[in-house]
Amino acid sequence: MSISTTQPESAPISPLRQRMLEDMAMRGLRSHTQHDYIRIVKSFATFLGRSPDTATVEDVRRFQVYQRESGMQPQSINNSVSGLRFFFTVALNRPDLSLRLVLVRFPRKLPDVLSVEEVGRLLEAAPSLKYKAALGTAYGAGLRVSEVAALKIDDIDSTRMLIRIEQGKGRKDRNAMLSPQLLALLRLWWREGKRRNVMLPHGWLFPGRSCTEPVSTRQINRAVHEAAEVAGIRKHVSPHTLRHSFATHLLEQDVDIRVIQVLLGHSKLDTTALYARVATKTIRAVTSPLERLQLLMEGGSPGG
């Protein structure tokens, strides 16, 4: 069996690839995850120069050494570990190979966060009203870029002031917050979209180049970078920066971290707790024990 990289698109799918696609579909993996896993296995097959189902323990070790020596980033190596683990464990039933894969440890950097003023400048500099509304949704509701792109008009519940997120990360449905200001911005865009005949009944909230397709995450990324440049923001900004900023600003407003966890759709509180490390207003509000010591010294020792 083979997952060949030279196989023409019109050629029949190899039995091995078909098996892996079926296994991924049975387990409900998203289409982009399936695409990534197939790409990773193809890369492994190219390195081997033969079908990946003939791999040995030494082949797995050599591949990971090659990845590291070629300068591949730790996160990319770890992504390939996920794809190969699925391939070895599920498609091949070779858990012995999966056990030989090594995850790369790397320091977790604090995310860049924009100030409220910087978010305002970014939104004002958006290249169009559509992208201003899309970026406003990412910040105002704390959504992932993929969740913004996948929104439909019917997902906006103005009666309950909620945004319905269907099949977010981890294939989970959840409700996100809809503030009055975000609703007003979305209504502005909806009217503009109707005027331009790009809003279909029950269609995408942010249509792409064709109104029958949603805007791509790549288009939203380009819009963010363009807006940041126009706004003169020097930080490294991406759509996820707006989600980081949403969580951090809520934490600085003393919103309970468990509420923020629910709004972000995090399964683990530890993930949400990362924002406590960048909430500078919260950090500044804490009184250092050194200050208390100074007050105690100036007032004399207790009972003295």
Question: Could you characterize the architecture of this molecule?
Answer:
The chain has 304 residues and is mainly alpha-helical. The chain folds into 2 domains: 15-98, DNA polymerase, domain 1 (Orthogonal Bundle), CATH 1.10.150; 116-284, Orthogonal Bundle (hpI Integrase, Chain A). It has 15 helices and 3 strands. The chain has helices at 15-26, 31-48, 57-69, 74-91, 95-98, 116-124, 129-141, 145-149, 180-195, 217-231, 239-252, 257-264, 269-273, 280-285, 289-299, and strands at residues 156-157, 162-165, 174-177. Strands 1-2-3 form a 3-stranded antiparallel sheet. It starts with 14 loop residues before the first helix and ends in a 5-residue tail after the last helix. Belongs to the 'phage' integrase family. Keywords: DNA integration, DNA recombination, DNA-binding. It comes from Acidiphilium iwatense.
Which labels suit this protein?
55% helix, disordered N terminus, 2 domains, single chain, hpI Integrase, Chain A, mainly alpha, three-stranded antiparallel beta sheet, DNA polymerase, domain 1, 304 residues
Overall pLDDT confidence = 84
Considering the protein shown, what is the CATH homologous superfamily of the largest domain? Intergrase catalytic core
Low-confidence stretches: 1-10
Compute the separation of the termini in Å.
85 Å
**Helix-and-strand structural type:** mainly alpha
| CATH topology-level fold name of the largest domain | hpI Integrase, Chain A
Q: Which class of the largest domain in CATH terms?
A: Mainly Alpha
Q: How large is the count of helical segments? A: 15
Organism: Acidiphilium iwatense
Family: Belongs to the 'phage' integrase family.
Domain Core-binding (CB): 11-92
Protein name: Site-specific integrase
